[in-house]
Amino acid sequence: MNTKITDCITKHLPKIEDHRGNISVIEKDVLPFAVKRVYYLYDVPSNSRRGGHAHRELHECLVAVSGSFDVILNDGENSKTVTLNKPDIGLIIPDGIWRELENFSSGSVCLVLASQEFNEDEYIRDFNDFKAHKFN
């Protein structure tokens, strides 16, 4: 779990522009992992926080398919905030990175593409446990 903040990257997703509306496509090798699970967050009150965990091995790509929100990333030593507000930009988060989502705009939708199916044992939900796991 030697991942660092610099391993979290934003990626332009393929966009097909059309006067009737644009389409973004995620297939083949667009992401650096195979997608095994898809879910999305919506109707999140603007003063709420989501996330608040890290993953042991799972990788994710977050996309603001509507509206905007901030993703606070922390590798145990450094942190940074990434604002997602375009449906053709994905934020790739590898394993071993703590993440929190906040500042959801009205009507925002956060699409999450994950490299594994849900497994509670994959989650580290306490920040002190995360730091202990990260540096041992």
TrEMBL record:
Pfam families membership: FdtA
InterPro entries recorded:
QdtA_cupin_dom, RmlC-like_jellyroll, RmlC_Cupin_sf
Lineage, top-rank taxon, reads: Bacteria
The Sugar 3,4-ketoisomerase QdtA cupin domain, residue ranges: 7-133
Q: What is this protein called?
A: FdtA/QdtA family cupin domain-containing protein
